[in-house]
Amino acid sequence: MSDFPHIERFDRFMAAGDAYAEARAVLFGIPMDFTTSFRPGARGGPARIREVSYGIEEFSYHQARDLKDVKFFDLGEVAVAFGNVAASLERARLTAEKLLADGKLPIMLGGEHLCTLPVFQAVHARHPDVVLLHFDAHADLREDYLGERLSHACVMRRCCELIEPRSLYQFGIRSGTREEYEFGRNEANLFPGQVLPGLRQVLPQLWGRQVYISIDIDVVDPAYAPGTGTPEPGGIPSAELIQVIKEMGQADLDVVGLDIVEVAPSLDATDRTAVLGAKLVREALLAFAHPKD
Predict the structure, then answer these.
(1) How many CB atoms are located within 10 Å of the residue 22 CB?
(2) Cβ atoms within 10 A of the Cβ of 290, count?
(3) Concatenated DSSP letters of the chain
(4) How far is it, in rounded angstroms, from Cα 42 to Cα 54?
(5) Using one digit for the tens of pLDDT, what is the confidence trace for 167-181?
(6) Engineered SS bond to 191: which of 110, 132, 198, 274, CB 3.0-4.6 Å?
(7) How far is it, in rounded angstroms, from Cα 157 to Cα 180?
(8) What's the distance, CA 102 to chain centroid?
């Protein structure tokens, strides 16, 4: 598309429409894993999530809704500049910025978690009071990782340079340094190991505020989602994460952006991680882009 010079189009997500102008939500991928610190492969996440989406139904039993009733568009992939982290992030930011200018709900598929940063930068520029809901096994609050400030291990710390840390809510965290733990406890809103209980406590505080949602697939236990770069035992079952999306939709949150990151299909021969990613995309579309009932 001429309006998106940094986009390449391949396969699209199941049931995606053909009309960008009519779409409420737009999917796009950032196939980047340049700063992955353990097992690479997340760059393949967006493509594989699209491919396996055809193995699940368009109808959701969880929400009793169908994708055929949602107007959404699959834009394609950001053409990352291999080996150049800053240039790749800038291409992603410009893409997200254009989507927001066009009144779309951006749903980004990663890629490593650093891919959240450019999308959140674009959202924050348009919605300065945005709240960030972060679902992850890892705090991602390091000031730097091995001297690098642009790392998947630092992405939430970079986001906290845009917003007040008190506007960051972290759920499911079960790994990080002592310094990250203290920052999350003292400066942000950290719910170690908790997902649904913590979210239910927070939801009443979010009414009337714009919300960005970032989901790292490793918030789920690796028994359910082994295809991720930094698996961390002790996580939630996949059913709980699906319920999280359902309850956020029922709360009628003003969601202005969302991402699902760190799916690494080459690390999961069963494809259950990618299938979970596809199901989460479906549930997010139905929760946040569906016409009001």
Answers:
(1) 10
(2) 20
(3) -TT-TTEE-----TT-BS-TTT-SEEEEEE---TT-SS---GGGHHHHHHHHGGGS-SEETTTTEEGGGS-EEEEEEE---TT-HHHHHHHHHHHHHHHHHTT-EEEEEESSGGGHHHHHHHHHHH-TT-EEEEE-SB----S-BTTBSSSTTSHHHHHTTTS-GGGEEEES--B--HHHHHHHHHTSEEETT-SHHHHHHHGGGGTTSEEEEEEEGGGB-TTT---SSS--SS-B-HHHHHHHHHHHHHTT-EEEEEEEE---GGG-TT-HHHHHHHHHHHHHHHHHSSPP-
(4) 20
(5) 999 999 999 999 999
(6) 198
(7) 9
(8) 20
Structure tokens belonging to residue 83 = 């080996």
In the block, tokens 């009414």 appear at 207
Could you tell me whether strands 105-110 and 25-30 are parallel, antiparallel, or unpaired per DSSP bridges?
Answer: parallel
The pair of structure tokens assigned to 293 is: 């009932």
List the domain boundaries for the chain: 7-288
Question: Mean pLDDT, to the nearest integer, of 221-235?
Answer: 97
- CATH T-level fold of 7-288: Arginase; Chain A (3.40.800)
**Contact (Cβ atoms closer than 8 angstroms) between residue 241 and residue 219:** yes
